[in-house]
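Hi P.,

Sorry for the delay on this. The queue was packed all week, but I finally got your sequence through. Input first:
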Amino acid sequence: MIPAENAPNLFSKKLINWYENNKRDLPWRGTTDPYKIWLSEIILQQTRVVQGMDYFLRMIERFPDVTALASADEDEVLKYWQGLGYYSRARNLHAAAQSVVKDFGGKMPGKYFQLLKLKGIGDYTAAAISSFSENAPYPVVDGNVFRFLSRYLGIKEPIDTGKGKKLFTEVAENLMDKKKAGVFNQAIMEFGALQCIPGLPDCSLCPFSNACIALSEHKISEYPVKQNKVKVQNRYFHYFHVITGSCTYIRKRSQKDIWHNLYEFPMIETDTPVTFEVLSRHEAFKALFGDSTALDFKLIVSNKKHVLTHRVLWANFYEIHLKETPQSFRNFLKIDEKDWGIYAVHRLMESYLELFSK
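Then the structure:
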């Protein structure tokens, strides 16, 4: 699998040399604090560095250590996370911080197997934290590493299988200079992020181009290989911005679904896209508004598309002014419109509120 000229020390030396000359200046580099490393890794999972940097700096300022994070209210943590998506990560981050306070005396562990005991930390994150903080020889294998190694070594094993993930982890471990595990892991991820990028990278600048199998076979775009095609589900949401004076009504999503514990307007979900006429005959609509013939609903946003992992959401936002609020709204939270800033909302709601505030 690994050619003789790519022996670990030679590969690591070439990779680390590239890294030292090309790495980005990022605020979480140059630290061995496992808490800061952990926070940066959770933020950056499936989030671009440019977007993640502001979140990291803001969260470090508000939650400078694991104790500060653990003692915060979950709603506040979600508010600071707002806009990043994947809100389960924020909830896991908060829960893990509380476990650190309870089980590790408030000191964030840096040991691989101790880290695995914390909620939301898997093999990849544990490897990143332990190698960056303690130079522990555990390989990190993320999307950047999958792409680089699959192209370079011509690995056709699908990356979205247990067998594939195990193989790539073994390959990365075999290539790693164990004495420089931390910088090796930083380097291989950075190489995939900056040089061996998705699509068509500039292979003329690649220090590994002379031995890259995908390049020699003119098959760069065929790597990495994936086995399973994800089935995308369409969902249809209808939101109601109910205005009574300076107030409106919201609810916290408590069901085990997307955006758990985030706030939004009263909402009805339908199985298919429907007109307002059809929606007004829906049982959930009647339960909220009763006889709607005397009410004036105004469509503000129509068929707003919002893409999530495995789902595409289509949302309508209706505005309605009420002099008296029906009893059906007793289960919703009444807030002043000017207080939106203290409630954590998902991106779909945030985009509407940005439009509404103009």
